[in-house]
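[09:14] KT: can someone run the structure on this one? pasting the chain below
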Amino acid sequence: MTSLQRRSTCSLIARSALLASLGLAAAFPVAAEVANRVVLRVNDRIVTLYDFDRQLARARADILEQARDSEQQRTLLDNAPREVMRSLFDELLILTRADQLGLAVRDLEVDQEIREQMTRFGLSTEEEMRAALAQNGITLEQFRTNLRNQLLWREVTQEELYPRIAVDEQELRALYRERASEFAVPEQRRLREVVVLEDGGLDADGRARVAGELRAAWVAGGDPEELVAGARADHGELAVALLDVGWVGPGDLAPELERAVWQLAPGDVSEPIAARGGLHLAQVLELKEQSQRPFEDVRNALLARERSRRFEQELEKYLEELEEKAYYDFRPPQGLEDFETASGRRVREGQRELLAPGRQVAEPVAPPR
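[09:31] RB: done, structure tokens below
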């Protein structure tokens, strides 16, 4: 996702310390004319060097905060400048499309979003909000701008992308049939057990003898509660336990128990099974055959998953379409002199068009009127 949605809990001071420790001090410009230098223009929106440096510092700090091995961390840090520039490029494509569509976000909408964020994080005053944002190196004004851009992004995608990812009922049912195995419910069995406990005071021979006697009486029609009560009276309160295990499926039991239980018919009592805790006598009370979850039960989850898949797929195509129509000017920061967008188009300094992969010359794109 874009840098508009990135979050961090590290303070600005901590970020700077982390970066400096690896020789990656954030390149915050000291001169106003350098900070305000435009490095990227897409249609009528711009990114300054300060914007880029600020986003890059956050991205690097996010990488450093996560537990990764040093080699993977170094690779991510090396790639961070290009990833940040790609993210900013995509943002400008979407935001300038919002401008072209005449979309706007009212202050009231931003205010409402801020109130919801404050409620979510248990903040009651603007001062608390400012203090929390300061821990992330963000002012409230910058946060408002980020929220406004997020809302604009959402409006653009709802207007132009959501119609592309519509899934009708017939398609959903076809997906349900294609993925039938995903919605299979395995066979289940409801169990109860009598366990001659390993730490109940009986030695191995004694446990085997008691377990055999209990099974013989149980199979002969004895009530397991009465049988357990009698065994406790004879051998001590901790010698035997009666357990209502409930419904179990494949993988819920220890392997030795599962192998035995899955051979039983309802009402059958197993031979004594050595497993964790002692010798187990298991009885199957009920059995549910393998089945499939009804379409109605999985419809909403299936719809959400398919829409998400289509959204990612169509967003990539949509950004490529916007790229092809974009007017831009690129004055790259150091190290990004031959920058590529996420779709693989090359963007070189000062060009007003994009070079598609493998193309030597791009057809000119007229600037907006």
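[09:33] KT: thanks! The chain has twelve helices and eleven strands.
[09:34] RB: yep, looked fine to me
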